[in-house]
Task: inverse folding
């Protein structure tokens, strides 16, 4: 920093910190509670209603054991990882390619296409025609059915266009004058500057893929191809008593199992986010003044 | 002016594009094409005259069938391509089953409706009364009548003739209704240890029930020094139905059929078609609420929360499916959480007019539906013969798995190996279950001693539950007649 | 983005349709790569978004599967009449608007403030930890959140009610009390998306040129002034974009959340269009009614969006188009 911090500045920091810590606590306490429930034996859970502090010797990892030893889980995890990575990559490629021309203010089709895209955020034909399209394309029981119907999200496209438009126009102009083609400008100049938005939108797409559920129920009937969310939910619904439950089928205490499933599905995202985070701060004041 | 026109054009473009697509779609809509294939009339006599099967009962030409079913144990994987039951169908019938397993039973109806709306139903599947009504209304389901000749044993053993009116719609048997393979499942259970601790007698009349509930609520029966127990608990479902007050309604002779809604609106109980009996029952439920003997969470909690509540030892009298209460997998958590807990089943309360009923009873079991498309493709006979096979030669294989390996007979009783690999093989057992005594004993005749020292012979609970007074609503389950033209 | 639009409009010569097509053709020859880039996306939108829209016509028909979307008999506005003549509809519409607007008015400022506060933190580890933690609730399904709410708000055993009782008050059944239910909806919605909602703003903040801040610092601007005059204006386009899209979807007040959290005691205040339609259609085949509701929601959204965009351009100087 070039300037020394005054008293007001310091107070400002203190206030910011206090607010952020309070918000974080409001979020972390329920999350911590979920984590604790996932290791609380049922009898303890019922006596206490779940507590924030479970003694280590009372913890049970039965829920995790039951989920992780399921023969279906590793495969389903692989399917989800595949859909998420390949799907997100496709999403990003098509969205970027579409956003770039639309971000140019002198692009003749900009406005009609923009409006046409906006139109799709308001109107849709419903689930049945989409199902027919997917079936007609031969995508039933094909991973394509989990990636193609949501290839471009109108919201993400608009956000990306807005970001491109905010990039300094001079750099692009200079490159164009130097004889670079549109493709070269996008690849060598625009994209390197767009890491924050690629990370953000990539995250949005990835999370949508990771959580996709009913698509998979509808389009995928082959058990080998079911993604994680479907498999986890079928493991969880085993606790529901219906007339065909075997009398001595091992039923886990529902809460423990449910929360263990929540922790297991959320955990991978916990690791992905920090990886993307560094792109959010690239090029900001904070990055440059800190030294 | 020209700018304005351009703007108009720009605004109009998406709409124009949409209409262009509409026109294009007109030519090639898959739904439209499917609609043109008029349902072929099945000629009963012709079907009988021309035999499609050889002397061994195998189809001369292999018949592919898409069978959609929910798995029996959803936490396990559905059977793989080398499923022994599918192989048997192929070997013994020359039917190629293409199994579409639904591991999400909660999504089954939505899935079938969507596929139905796209005219892409599986060939044969189990359907609820609502599904049968809606799909039948759309002409998507086939009439079983011409095919019953291929499944005589099934028809006889599953009491198809007697239950025909329930699945008949507009003169066609659209849902093949079978008798329930399940014993009567509802019971009332009480905390015997609490009764003993407080020196109370097992309640019989509604007033005695209320007094016991009051004592359970106020006299700290679990002795933890906190007022955290309740006499009764209940729940609501997503459509606003009150759950788990049935024995109270029964005591007033006011059990509604399940289609009629009782609701709470703005914190008040509202009963749409109110009869004097129902009014009395509701008054009594209100009194229970006012005296504080009902767990106050009941208005917001779901059925699973209700179950956690009594398993945690907070509730004194419980209206519950007895297997959800006493079968070992379900009683275990209760036993672990309540080291001195004793749960016993009792008779439902007797009301002021001497009436008593625990709940409804519907003697219908599965509804099998065949898609009209399958019938049009000439698969009806194969489907019928498959049903007959599942009921006959394939019965034991479908319901229990391979004899000697997955189950055996011991002293006249079937003993089933419950290891996971074998349970996967039994995925379609719901289709095979008949409810015979032998079958029920294989499922329920077990005696277990639990961690809290209580020994429960589940077969005795089952037999007592069969004697409980109940309201038979089987005949109310008839599909309504076809709606007048132009109405839904 | 908005200012560029404005200047663009001023310098654009007056056109007629013919010259617009000429310009398009010229542009296509010169920048054919741009049009190639556009192609996959356009094909996607036509195939998966526009083509299935033919399904919407069943709003004016009685959908008969075997006759298909085209062959089904026309019934005109019958389904719309069914909806609009229902005595419940206007109550449900009111609830939807109240809940939606409350979520928008409360949620948007919270997300923006939270993003701005995060942006002010200099310690990287602290900033990252706060972000990582606060964005996690987004991944919990509403069913799980309902479980958390039940343990917190239960009148018999909930933490909050225990506190109220300890302080001498009467327990409140927040989830079954019509006076509290909407508050619970809004707060739980904010809680769930407080971190997630900031991501989009943080991406925009990352694009701000550091030189702007340096210049302001040299001028002796305080932190608050820098936030108000530099940071905030630079994310206005994103704020406008997010707000406008949410306004366009004002008639969707969060089906999953309401569906999981509500119960018959609070239907009067909590029932929204989507849950109402769901309960109407729970018995089965109501694709025509759904399509009619979809068209109604879309039409209202269209009007709201066009109005809001016009207002945004007038007062914030930027819009989506």
Result:
């Amino acid at each position: 920093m070039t300037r020394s911090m005054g008293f007001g500045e310091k107070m400002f920091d203190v206030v910011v910190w206090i607010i952020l810590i309070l918000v974080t606590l409001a979020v972390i306490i329920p999350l911590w509670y979920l984590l604790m429930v996932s290791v609380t034996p049922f009898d303890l859970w019922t006596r206490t209603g779940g507590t924030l502090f479970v003694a280590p010797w009372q913890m049970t990892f039965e829920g995790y054991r039951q989920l992780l030893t399921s023969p279906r889980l590793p495969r389903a995890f692989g399917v989800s990882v595949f859909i998420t990575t390949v799907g997100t990559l496709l999403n990003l490629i098509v969205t970027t390619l579409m956003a770039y021309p639309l971000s140019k203010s002198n692009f003749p089709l900009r406005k009609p296409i923009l409006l046409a895209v906006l139109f799709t955020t308001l109107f849709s034909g419903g689930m049945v025609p989409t199902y027919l399209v997917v079936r007609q394309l031969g995508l039933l029981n094909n991973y394509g059915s989990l990636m193609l119907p949501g290839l471009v999200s109108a919201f993400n496209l608009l956000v990306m266009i807005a970001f491109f438009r905010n990039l300094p126009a001079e750099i692009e102009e200079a490159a164009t004058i130097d004889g670079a083609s549109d493709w070269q400008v996008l690849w060598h100049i625009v994209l390197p500057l767009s890491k924050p938005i690629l990370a953000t939108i990539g995250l949005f797409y990835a999370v949508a893929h990771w959580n996709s559920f009913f698509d998979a129920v509808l389009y995928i009937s082959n058990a080998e191809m079911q993604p994680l969310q479907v498999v986890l939910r079928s493991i969880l619904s085993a606790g529901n008593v219906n007339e065909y439950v075997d009398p001595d089928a091992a039923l886990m205490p529902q809460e423990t199992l449910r929360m263990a499933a929540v922790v297991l599905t959320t955990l991978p995202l916990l690791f992905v986010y920090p990886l993307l985070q560094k792109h959010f701060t690239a090029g900001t004041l904070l990055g440059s003044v800190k030294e | 002016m020209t700018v304005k026109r351009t703007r108009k054009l720009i605004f109009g473009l998406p709409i124009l594009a949409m209409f262009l697509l509409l026109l294009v779609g007109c030519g090639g809509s898959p739904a439209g094409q499917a609609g043109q294939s008029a349902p072929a009339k099945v000629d009963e006599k012709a079907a009988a005259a021309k035999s499609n099967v050889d002397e061994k009962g195998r189809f001369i030409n292999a018949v592919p069938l898409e069978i959609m079913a929910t798995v029996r144990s959803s936490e396990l994987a559905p059977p793989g391509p080398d499923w022994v039951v599918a192989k048997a169908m192929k070997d013994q019938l020359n039917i190629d089953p293409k199994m579409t397993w639904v591991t999400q039973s909660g999504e089954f109806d939505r899935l079938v409706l969507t596929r139905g709306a796209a005219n892409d139903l599986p060939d044969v599947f189990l359907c609820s009364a609502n599904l049968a009504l809606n799909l039948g209304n759309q002409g998507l389901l086939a009439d079983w009548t011409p095919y019953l000749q291929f499944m005589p044993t099934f028809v006889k053993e599953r009491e198809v003739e007697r239950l025909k009116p329930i699945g008949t719609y507009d003169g066609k048997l659209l849902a093949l209704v079978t008798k329930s393979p399940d014993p009567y499942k509802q019971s009332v259970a009480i905390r015997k240890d609490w009764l003993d601790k407080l020196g109370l007698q097992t309640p019989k009349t509604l007033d005695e029930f209320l007094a016991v509930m009051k004592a359970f609520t106020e006299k700290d029966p679990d002795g933890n020094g906190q007022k955290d127990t309740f006499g009764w608990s209940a729940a609501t479902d997503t459509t606003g139905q009150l759950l788990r007050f049935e024995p109270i309604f029964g005591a007033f002779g006011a059990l509604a059929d399940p289609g009629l809604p009782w609701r709470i609106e703005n914190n008040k109980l509202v009963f749409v078609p109110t009869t004097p009996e129902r009014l009395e029952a509701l008054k009594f439920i209100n009194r229970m609420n006012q005296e504080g003997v009902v767990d106050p969470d009941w208005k917001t909690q779901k059925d699973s929360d209700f179950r956690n509540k009594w398993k945690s030892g907070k509730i004194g009298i419980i209206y519950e499916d007895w297997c959800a209460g006493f079968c070992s997998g379900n009683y275990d958590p209760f036993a672990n959480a309540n080291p001195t807990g004793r749960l016993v089943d009792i008779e439902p309360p007797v009301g002021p007019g001497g009436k008593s009923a625990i709940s409804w009873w519907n003697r219908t079991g599965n509804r099998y539906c065949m898609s009209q498309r399958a019938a049009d493709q000439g698969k009806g006979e194969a489907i019928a013969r498959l049903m007959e096979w599942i009921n006959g030669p394939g019965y034991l294989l479908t319901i229990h798995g391979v004899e000697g390996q997955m189950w055996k007979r011991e002293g006249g009783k079937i003993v089933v190996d419950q290891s996971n690999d074998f349970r996967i093989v039994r995925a379609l057992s719901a289709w095979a279950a008949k409810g015979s005594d032998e079958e029920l004993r294989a499922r329920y005749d077990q005696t277990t001693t639990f961690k809290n020292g209580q020994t429960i012979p589940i077969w005795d609970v089952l037999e007592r539950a069969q004697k409980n007074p109940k309201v038979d609503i089987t005949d109310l389950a008839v599909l309504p007649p076809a709606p007048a033209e132009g109405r839904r | 983005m908005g200012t560029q639009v404005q200047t663009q409009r001023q310098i654009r010569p007056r056109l007629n349709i013919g010259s617009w097509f000429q310009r398009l053709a010229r542009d296509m020859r010169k920048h054919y790569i741009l049009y190639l880039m556009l192609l996959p996306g356009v094909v996607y939108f036509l195939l998966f978004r526009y083509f299935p829209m033919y399904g919407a016509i069943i709003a004016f028909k009685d959908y008969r599967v075997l006759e298909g979307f085209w062959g089904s008999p026309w019934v005109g506005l019958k389904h719309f009449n069914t909806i609009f003549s229902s005595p419940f509809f206007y109550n449900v519409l009111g609830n939807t608007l109240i809940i939606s607007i409350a979520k928008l008015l409360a949620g948007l400022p919270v997300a923006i403030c939270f993003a701005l506060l995060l942006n002010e933190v200099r310690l990287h580890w602290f900033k990252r930890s706060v972000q990582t933690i606060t964005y996690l609730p987004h991944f919990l399904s509403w069913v799980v959140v309902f479980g958390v709410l039940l343990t917190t708000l239960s009148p018999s055993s909930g933490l909050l009610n225990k506190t109220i009782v300890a302080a001498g008050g009467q327990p409140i059944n927040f989830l079954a009390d019509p006076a509290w239910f909407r508050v619970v909806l809004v707060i739980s919605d904010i809680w769930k998306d407080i971190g997630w909602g900031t991501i989009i703003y943080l991406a925009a903040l990352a694009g701000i040129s550091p030189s702007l801040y340096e210049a302001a610092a040299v001028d002796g601007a305080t932190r608050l002034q820098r936030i108000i005059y530099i940071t905030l204006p630079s994310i206005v386009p994103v704020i406008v974009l997010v707000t406008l899209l949410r306004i366009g979807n004002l008639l969707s007040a969060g089906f999953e959340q309401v569906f999981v959290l509500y119960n018959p005691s609070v239907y009067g205040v909590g029932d929204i269009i989507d849950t109402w339609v769901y309960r109407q259609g729970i018995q089965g085949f109501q694709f025509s009614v759904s399509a009619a509701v979809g068209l109604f929601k879309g039409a209202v959204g269209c009007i709201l969006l066009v109005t809001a965009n016009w207002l945004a351009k007038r007062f914030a100087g930027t819009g989506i188009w």
Remarks:
- The two ends of chain C are 9 Å apart (CA to CA).
- Confidence is low (pLDDT under 50) at residues 1-11 of chain C.
- DSSP finds 17 helices and no strands in chain C.
- Chain C touches chain A through 99 residues (CB under 8 Å).
